[in-house]
């Protein structure tokens, strides 16, 4: 799982800086042409890679129709409180991440006089954080109890958002982007994936993981749609109003254009910290690895019971 994050982040290290520099040379139209060209490369790779189809007997026929297949994942997750709890945490954390990061670009551009190179450097920091974190987890193996990687990683990733919100320049923004991605992508995602892969039998993982992804990302469109509206109609006017609230918050996020969006990023970080630490309050979440047996342990138990039954028949 951590090595997958390496693949996702490697290209993101140079691309933001290159995009920021090329924007002044070839413009948005040229950048979109580059984007489409790389898409064709990706599609070409898929065309030449052979993906084997699993044998039918390897697939658990747990459902009898397309629609029952669609709801199988929901039933599986709802029947297991620990997995459901993790999903609800991921839903909340994803809202906090998206709510803040949806306005990160206009916040940085507003506070740097539309300096696209600075913004590209901040984006690059996120990819570097993912790359470094993925490498460390791949070598280290993560926390012994993966749930600690999920919950503590959520909280520490929120600290990265706090740095982005309170920062006034490239150094702090760079650090915030690095920490946020280092924890959220490398530590949280790889630990979370390891839990699910150990608890869900492989033949069921396609349906369960599809539902899991749907539930985890359900609030992302809501956060994206609301972020821009709230930035324009509430947070930016609030910080420009000169009210006592704006003066107090100005000591935290500064003053001027973009400070309302900086406050939003700060709030997103607090949401991430709250959900991460709040997960420890629920026994079903903090003990999910011990309360739910691994699927390979269940398979071994079933095999022993089968052997014992066969021996009994022989007797």
Describe the structure.
The chain is mostly helical and 315 residues long. Helix content is 82%, strand content 0%. It contains 14 helices and no strands. Helix 4 runs antiparallel to helix 11 (259-278), helix 9 packs across helix 11 and helix 10 (244-253) packs across helix 11 (259-278). The termini are far apart. Residues 305-315 have low confidence and may be disordered.
Give the arrangement of secondary structure elements.
Blueprint: H1 2-48, H2 66-78, H3 81-101, H4 104-111, H5 116-140, H6 146-166, H7 170-199, H8 202-216, H9 220-240, H10 244-253, H11 259-278, H12 283-286, H13 288-291, H14 295-314
Helix pairs in contact: 1-5, 2-8, 3-9, 3-11, 4-11, 5-7, 6-7, 6-11, 9-11, 10-11
Keywords:
315 residues, mainly alpha, 14 helices, 82% helix, globular, disordered C terminus
Number of strands: 0
Structural class: mainly alpha
How confident is the prediction overall: mean pLDDT?
84
Helix content: over 70%
Radius of gyration: 23 Å
Large-scale geometry: globular
Number of helices: 14
Residue ranges: pLDDT <50 for 5 or more in a row? 305-315
Strand count, sense and barrel status of the largest sheet are: none
Q: Indicate the multimeric state.
A: single chain
Strand content: under 5%
- Write down the secondary-structure element order: HHHHHHHHHHHHHH
CA-to-CA gap between the ends?
A: 47 Å
Write a brief caption for the model:
The protein has 14 helices and no strands. The chain has 315 residues and is mostly helical.
